[in-house]
Amino acid sequence: MKSPALLAAMLGIAIAACGRPAPQVAHPPAPNPTTAIVGASLWDGTGRAPVANAVTLVQGDRILCAGGTGECLIPRGARVIEASGRYLIPGLIDSHVHLLFLSNGSAGEQLALDLRDLLAQGVTTVRDMGGNPAELLPRVQTMTAAPRVYAMQLVAGRRFFFNGLRGVATSRGTIYRQPPALTMQRMGWTPMLYTPGTDPDSLVAEARSAGATGLKLYAQLDSTSVHRLVAAARRAGMPGWGHAWVQPASVMEQSVGGQDGVVHAAGLAGELYAAEDRERLVNDGDLQAATALVGTVASAHDPRVLAALDSMASRGTFFEPTLDATRHSVDHYNAQGRRRPSVQEEYVRVASSFGMEVTREAVARGVRISAGSDHVAYGAGRDRATLFGELQLLVDSIALSPTAALLAATRDAAAAIGGESGARIGTIETGRYADLVLLSKNPLENIANLEAVEWVMLGGRVWRPGQLRSGIALR
User: Fold this and answer.
1) Are 254 and 358 in the same domain?
2) pLDDT in tens, 154-167
3) Same-domain check for residues 344 and 415
4) pLDDT on residue 279
5) Which of 1-10, 415-424, 441-450 is predicted with the least confidence, judged by mean pLDDT?
6) 266 and 190 in one domain?
7) Distance (Å, whole) CA 44 – CA 36
8) DSSP state, 433?
9) Span 72-115, pLDDT tens digits
10) Helix crossing, 387-396 with 323-336: angle to 10°?
């Protein structure tokens, strides 16, 4: 039998033990949320020379740091992606696509597959340059794998909508043409109507509420209308772009009016017409016939064309030539081999040669180039213009260096998109979106090496081309 003293001692020990804090369980440290891409040659798109054996840190959907090993220290526990012997560049930007074609089937599954394929090519951002933002953007938002999509709002003047059915005499007889808006609306495109009585600030507010990030002035707008619309867009922090054929406003008038960019090199044929002649051109058929009549390699050097390009250069107006689209159209007509070409075929052949020569002059005169392909999201893949095709032409036919061509599809394309959207993309810098492309070959040596995509990162998430094209996401 234990003595009372021993029992008291044992009770004291028990009480003391109960008063102590419970022993702490050692938990492993939480994994660091940073991803480190190490060993690649980094071309960051800012204009600085490539950085060998670079470190690029990604946290969430943003770039944390990018540079040499001494510039970016890898946090303990970071996920490391080994990229030695590869080439890391910013995600590519195609600043001119057309995604929504309701009458051609690109509003559903085909659109999703097209966007997956663009992402597999390293295109992490596209700008839709014609359609219906309110219809397009909600569709894109439901897709798991798609580039960032920014949409412009089309704007056109009264005659674009209400010019009645009319007969036009041609060398092939009378051709009947309907108001252009009817054709566009069947495709699902919805230009906004602007008249001299329209409040431009209200129009811009309506475009913004539909999700548009800028205006694209499409047709039947004079120089006064261009000036008012661009000024209203600027007040709202949005860019204003336009067709080179905004007739009756010329490219010179668009540039002087403050427009941020002009699309389609062939449209500078309009500079060769007087204002009263441009006034009579209403729809695409008119424009095609007018271009085919005056567009030559020699007329690309006409003083009126050169003056417009000089104005663009001095004012910083962007130029989007869309050369690959006309090249594909020429290939299409070559395959058909018609003995008597149509108006459209005559136009395409002239537009290709004239547009190439105009683009050479634009580059020589210092006009800022943004790489937009005029890609469409339907039809056979071989018939679609691509950003890769556009960049290949800029290098092989226009004599841009691969570096200059890449800048046109990254930093400069982001500047062309403008606003807050453009400020987050286009370069590999702290705070920008983690939109990256890893290549197995050096694109600065040969622009064709852009096809050597190992993986694409969009907002910090890695995708591999084969998995995107088979519909299987990387987990």
Assistant:
1) yes
2) 999 988 887 655 45
3) yes
4) 85
5) 1-10
6) yes
7) 15
8) B
9) 999 999 999 999 999 999 999 999 999 987 665 566 778 899 99
10) 100
Token pair in block for residue 328: 């594909």
Q: Angle, to 10 degrees, between the axis of helix 284-294 and the axis of helix 343-364?
A: 70
Describe the crossing of helices 133-141 and 109-120 by its angle, rounded to 10 degrees: 70
Closest CA to 39 of 59, 58, 56: 56
Write out the DSSP string of 224-262.
Answer: HHHHHHHHHHHHTT--EEEES-BTBB-HHHHHHTT-SEE
Over range 441-458, report the average pLDDT.
98
Judge whether 453 and 87 are in contact, CB under 8 Å.
Answer: no
pTM: 0.89
Alpha helices for 143-209 (secondary structure H): 158-162, 180-187, 200-209
Q: Which domain holds residue 460?
A: 33-91+426-475
Domain presence at residue 468: yes
Residues 294 and 150 in one domain: yes
Q: Dihedral of CA 54/123/434/28: which sign?
A: negative
Instruction: Say what the alpha-carbon torsion angle 271, 237, 135, 390 is, to the nearest 10 degrees.
Output: 50
Percentage of the chain with pLDDT > 90? Answer: 71
Question: Residue 261: phi, psi to the nearest 5?
Answer: -160, 160
* pLDDT tens by residue, 28-42: 555 669 999 999 999
pLDDT band at 210 (very low <50, low <70, confident <90, very high): very high
Which pair of structure tokens corresponds to residue 357? Answer: 């020569």
Contact indicator for 457, 86 with CB cutoff of 8 Å = no
Per residue in 252-310, pLDDT (tens digit) is 999 999 999 999 999 999 999 998 888 888 767 788 889 999 999 999 999 999 999 99
Check residue 75 and report its DSSP letter: P
Whether 475 and 409 share a structural domain: no
Cis-peptide into 248, omega within 30 deg: yes
How many whole angstroms separate alpha carbon 420 and alpha carbon 425?
Answer: 9
3-state secondary structure (DSSP) of residue 173: strand
* Number of alpha helices (DSSP H) and beta strands (DSSP E) in the chain: 18, 21
CATH assignment at residue 437: 2.30.40.10
Tokens 């002239």 correspond to 350
Q: How far is CA 78 from the centre of its chain?
A: 32
The rounded distance, in Å, linking the Cα atoms of 90 and 282 is 41
Q: Within 13 Å and on the Cβ side, how many CA atoms surround 323?
A: 24
Which of 277, 220, 228 lies closest to 245 in space, CA to CA? 220
